[in-house]
From TrEMBL:
<protein>
    <recommendedName>
        <fullName>Translation initiation factor IF-2</fullName>
    </recommendedName>
</protein>
<feature type="binding site">
    <location>
        <begin position="180"/>
        <end position="183"/>
    </location>
    <ligand>
        <name>GTP</name>
    </ligand>
</feature>
<comment type="similarity">
    <text>Belongs to the TRAFAC class translation factor GTPase superfamily. Classic translation factor GTPase family. IF-2 subfamily.</text>
</comment>
<feature type="binding site">
    <location>
        <begin position="126"/>
        <end position="130"/>
    </location>
    <ligand>
        <name>GTP</name>
    </ligand>
</feature>
<feature type="binding site">
    <location>
        <begin position="76"/>
        <end position="83"/>
    </location>
    <ligand>
        <name>GTP</name>
    </ligand>
</feature>
<feature type="domain" description="Tr-type G">
    <location>
        <begin position="67"/>
        <end position="241"/>
    </location>
</feature>
<comment type="function">
    <text>One of the essential components for the initiation of protein synthesis. Protects formylmethionyl-tRNA from spontaneous hydrolysis and promotes its binding to the 30S ribosomal subunits. Also involved in the hydrolysis of GTP during the formation of the 70S ribosomal complex.</text>
</comment>
Length: 364
């Protein structure tokens, strides 16, 4: 407090200060202050349990890596047809013999489609818009491999088209452009192509490397071509592999409290294989996987990389974007969750204290 006073900063001993003030204060009294981000703090927390996820990934043996399906997010301007496109995809290309198709909204779904003579899976995040995308990235969760940018052919490029594109580009995620509503009499798909060149998105037929597909989500036209384009984009340079032979980890896509079933969380497995009975921690939620269901409402016993499943058995509701991981035992899951909760509580206390001291200050 004294040093700060001499620096011209009025502060009390219980007050929160900003990063740069801490750095100046530190150097004044002969310390180098290191600012630790919440992500780093969590990394250290996990390391104290012997978990170093990044290192593990680096140490991954090539022999263990297997091809995994691409994870796709649909983005674009409001009313350009994101929801319709997701619906149209959901209706087509469901695994053979799966009568009725995808019935449950669990926040993500996987479809199968034939591609160059093989059955290939694609995972879709079922919440359109870039809000979900950015919220997840803000938590450090990079779930998307490919973004489908939906642009209505009768409307062309709009502000949120550009915004979505910026988000995808910032994340280094390739886009496939779905030129939608081509059934409309005033549709002008060529204009969409030429407009997007101004943003560095150049169609293959114009000599660029981005695939554009004309679709009518309303009629279901062009959806197969769109899926084809997604797989071609995935195969052209995206190295989509994961090790299914380890304890699972991934991201919570969405979660809620269900009257009968308690906490239900849709998670996307990114590495390893998730199994019923696994002890699991997701953010500050923990528990044991009691049951898993897929997008058809069917029970599943295990989920491999890129597979979304709805998990029951957590003691509370994780947030979208929270990372989940399977731990050695129940105790470790609980301890990690409790330590994280303590970290969050402290952060909130610090905030409240800062608010209070500000109020004191203005009162005085
Ligand atoms: P979102 O806001 O991007 O999710 O857009 P929606 O999927 O809700 O679609 C907005 C409106 O456009 C709805 O009235 C849809 O029925 C309509 N729409 C979506 N796709 C098509 C299409 O391919 N053709 C036509 N004619 N209308 C469409
Ligand atoms: Mg919508």
């Amino acid at each position: 407090v004294t040093v700060l006073f001499h620096l011209g900063e009025m502060a009390t001993a219980t007050e929160s200060l900003d990063d740069s003030t801490f750095e100046v204060l530190g150097s004044e009294i002969g310390y180098k202050v290191e600012i630790v981000s919440p992500e780093d703090e969590d990394k250290e927390l996990l390391e104290s349990f012997g978990l170093n996820l990044e290192q593990e990934e680096l140490d991954e043996d090539d022999e263990n890596l297997e091809i995994r399906p691409p994870v796709v997010t649909v983005m674009g301007h409001v009313d350009h047809g994101k929801t319709r496109v997701l619906d149209a995809i959901r209706k087509t290309n469901v695994i053979d013999g799966e009568a009725g198709g995808i019935t449950q909204h669990i926040g993500a779904y996987q479809i199968w489609t034939e591609h160059e003579g093989n059955e290939r899976a694609i995972t879709f995040i079922d919440t359109p818009g870039h809000e979900a995308f950015t919220a997840m990235r803000a938590r450090g969760a990079d779930v998307t491999d490919i973004a489908i940018l939906v642009v209505a052919a009768d409307d062309g490029i709009m502000p949120q088209t550009v915004e979505a594109l910026n988000h995808a580009q910032a994340a280094g995620v390739p886009v496939v452009v779905a030129v939608n509503k081509v059934d409309k009499p005033d549709a002008n798909p060529a204009k969409v192509r030429s407009q997007l060149t101004e943003y560095g998105v150049v169609a293959e037929e114009y000599g660029g490397d981005v695939m554009f597909v004309d679709v009518s989500a309303l009629r279901g036209d062009g959806i197969d071509n769109l899926l084809e384009a997604v797989l071609l984009t995935a195969d052209a340079g995206l190295d989509l592999v994961a090790n299914p032979n380890k304890e699972a980890r991934g991201v919570a896509i969405e979660a809620k409290l269900d009257k009968g079933r308690g906490s239900v969380a849709t998670v996307l497995v990114q590495g390893g294989t998730l199994r019923v009975g696994d002890p699991i921690v997701a953010g500050t939620a923990y528990g044991r996987v009691r049951a898993m269901i897929d997008e058809n409402g069917d029970r599943v016993e295990e989920a491999a990389p890129s597979r979304p499943v709805q998990v029951q058995g957590l003691n509370s509701v994780p947030r979208a974007g929270d990372l989940f991981l399977v731990t050695e035992d129940d105790r470790m899951a609980r301890q990690i969750a409790e330590k994280r909760e303590a970290v969050e509580r402290n952060a909130q206390l610090a905030k409240a204290r800062k608010r209070m001291s500000l109020e004191d200050f203005t009162k005085a």
